[in-house]
Design brief:
The complex is a heterodimer.
Chain A lengths: L2 H8 L2 E4 L11 E3 L3 H7 L5 E4 L5 H9 L3 E4 L7 H10 L3 E3 L4 H13 L1
Parallel strand pairs in A: 2-3, 3-4, 4-5
Antiparallel strand pairs in A: 1-5
Chain B lengths: L1 E7 L8 H12 L4 H21 L2 E8 L3 E9 L6 H5 L8 H5 L7 H7 L3 E7 L3 E9 L2
Antiparallel strand pairs in B: 1-2, 2-3, 3-5, 4-5
Helix pairs in contact in B: 1-2, 2-5
The chains are: A alpha/beta, B alpha+beta.
The complex binds adenosine-5'-triphosphate (ATP) and magnesium ion.
Adenosine-5'-triphosphate binds next to helix 2 and helix 5 of chain B.
Chain lengths: 111, 137
């Protein structure tokens, strides 16, 4: 499954990092604590969070995540979006809350 | 081979940039990707601790045939009780820092878990030195 597949299946908005839309996805991680993500997420996962600042991109890049999905309609801060474009790691946005979105993502990715 | 990168205390918009530079160096030297992953987790946590808790610091990387040593040295308040600081969940991070998702008290435990050898020296009112040693096999 590619990032572009979850964008179309879940109706996500692509906020930045479009050139990374064909990155391959292997699972996901949902958390708003940065050290938790640093310690427990794996490469090629999508990260579901409500954090919108630039540090999410530092983590996404260091961990080689496939994409970051912001919940509840949040948008990335300008410098986060800029970094996402530089790294080619998309930031996506969903109108849903973390619980609903994670459930749908889990089903989609594990099917 | 030695490399040195500066870390700015308090500047969250640059947090992780030293770690990112070190990652590039390790990749270029063809270090085992699994080891790079572990080192990246621990140096990022040590770097963010300088940003969140200290005033300024640097990251020194020394690469030997048998091991990679990273020393993160800062000028800052120091750590009064290192055993306490090592406990999962212990944090003195400010409310503003917590709001950003830092301050879970998971950084030092993450470092411990991902490093062969961790040495912390700290002097209150002076600063902290975190040494991470990983062996190449
Ligand atoms: N370089 C440092 N200088 C001064 N105090 C430090 C330093 N590194 C860690 N500490 C102290 O140790 C505590 C625990 O550190 P740890 O990295 O485990 O958690 P944290 O930084 O508070 O939160 P997290 O890493 O989960 O974002 C810190 O809250 C702080 O009190
Ligand atoms: Mg920390």
């Amino acid at each position: 499954m590619k990032v572009s597949d979850i964008v179309s299946e879940l109706g996500l908005k692509v906020c930045s990092g479009e050139q990374g839309l064909d990155r391959e996805i292997k699972g996901g991680y949902t958390s708003d604590l940065l050290s938790d993500v640093m310690g427990n997420a794996d490469a090629d996962q999508v990260w579901v969070t409500l954090q919108t600042h630039k540090n999410i991109m530092a983590i996404a890049s260091l961990k080689e995540l496939a994409a970051v999905i912001l919940v509840k309609g949040y948008e990335p801060e300008a410098d986060a979006a800029e970094q996402s474009n530089v790294e080619g790691i998309p930031i996506l946005s969903s109108e849903e809350e973390a619980f609903e979105l994670t459930g749908k993502l889990y089903k989609l990715i594990s099917d | 081979m030695d490399f040195k990168f500066d870390i700015e205390g308090g500047n969250f918009s640059k947090a992780g940039s030293a770690s990112s530079d070190v990652k590039k160096v390790l990749k270029k030297l063809n270090v085992d990707p699994k080891l790079i992953k572990r080192i990246v987790v621990s140096i990022y946590e040590a770097e963010v601790n300088v940003v969140a808790h200290a005033y300024e610091g640097e990251m020194n990387v020394s690469i030997f045939p048998e091991k990679i040593v990273v020393r993160i040295v800062d000028k800052g308040p120091g750590i009064p009780d290192i055993d306490l600081a090592m406990q999962k969940g212990y944090s003195t991070a400010s409310p503003a820092v917590r709001e950003m998702g830092f301050g879970a008290g998971m950084g030092l435990p993450n470092i411990k878990k991902n490093t062969n050898e961790l040495n912390i020296k700290s002097e209150v009112g002076v600063g902290t030195e975190v040494e991470l040693i990983n062996y190449l096999n």
